[in-house]
């Protein structure tokens, strides 16, 4: 790779900056929309140096995948809720006159028998053209969004993105990368999961293994909705998820000496940030306190026990969880606890960032509008 083509590749924008007060030039704006199984989320941002500033944002729980496990298709009610949310996104894009955008859909639309028909209806009714991305691309985008949280001491990294309909796991070996370059090497994963070209002047992060498990917080919850007892349902969900990742077992290569400092797990999802907010006792969500927080396994398990003790009504009333997420939080923490159990570390790095930030980074980097800068 030529040196001039590398400009911008290693730069990394801070995923969420304070909303800019100055009206930006429309030509400089980028948008990223992530239509997931449970939520529709969008960011409009402007590159600035090696970072980006968020100009506008949107997030709405649309429950697109509700009933997907039972029926195999998107329901009329779910489609109507989602199209209503997408019409708001279209108005925001029109208001800011955004020209550079990438609008994607993930697991619910990948799995639904009427996913392609839904995409056509979205275009017809909103004018927005969404693309259904493959699991590997979804995983890559999640990885690069988490690059700033990679420790210089990390040699083995697991990036976890717990979605509504799927969970992406990417296991990365950084032993061949010098510590100061490890976060920067993670950013180059956007080029693919294959090792870098021979002779490349830039160190590569080797993707040892990756998997997209077709279960997320919504679909896992639906599979065990007939189990009334919280504790029993939680245990069943956790065991079931562990069975699904039996072949993705990094702990098989580790020694039995216990948790290791050179192993790191980064979690990005609403589940992870909700657990962090609960641990911190936040009455009002504060991204500055959550993003980058490191939690121990004991602290995570303490939060989970609190959730189980609360019961459904208590979780619904808890402002750190909220009514929209209370029905999904147990399935989310069942996945999280399972992963903490099988990965040889007792620390979790919390990332309040994900697919949207990865989409923005990839667009800006490809256009060369980001400057090189420290991660």
Quick synopsis:
The protein is an alpha/beta fold and 375 residues long. The chain has 14 helices and eleven strands. The strands form two sheets. It has a six-stranded mixed beta sheet, with helices on both faces. It has a five-stranded mixed beta sheet with strand order 3-2-1-4-5, with helices on both faces.
Report on this structure.
There is one protein chain. This protein is an alpha/beta fold and 375 residues long. The chain has 2 domains: 4-136 and 358-363, ATPase, nucleotide binding domain (Nucleotidyltransferase, domain 5, 2-Layer Sandwich), CATH 3.30.420; 147-352, Exopolyphosphatase. Domain 2 (Nucleotidyltransferase, domain 5, 2-Layer Sandwich). The chain is 40% helix and 19% strand. The protein contains 14 helices and 11 strands. It has helices at 68-71, 76-96, 107-111, 115-126, 135-145, 182-187, 217-223, 230-244, 270-280, 287-290, 297-317, 322-326, 329-342, 355-367, and strands spanning 30-35, 39-48, 51-61, 100-105, 131-132, 156-162, 167-173, 206-213, 263-268, 294-296, 347-351. The strands form 2 sheets. Strands 8-7-6-9-11-10 form a 6-stranded mixed β-sheet, with helices on both faces. The protein has a 5-stranded mixed β-sheet with strand order 3-2-1-4-5, sandwiched between helices. A hairpin with a 3-residue loop joins strand 1 (30-35) and strand 2 (39-48). Helix 2 packs across helix 4 (115-126). The two termini are 21 Å apart. The relative contact order is 0.17.
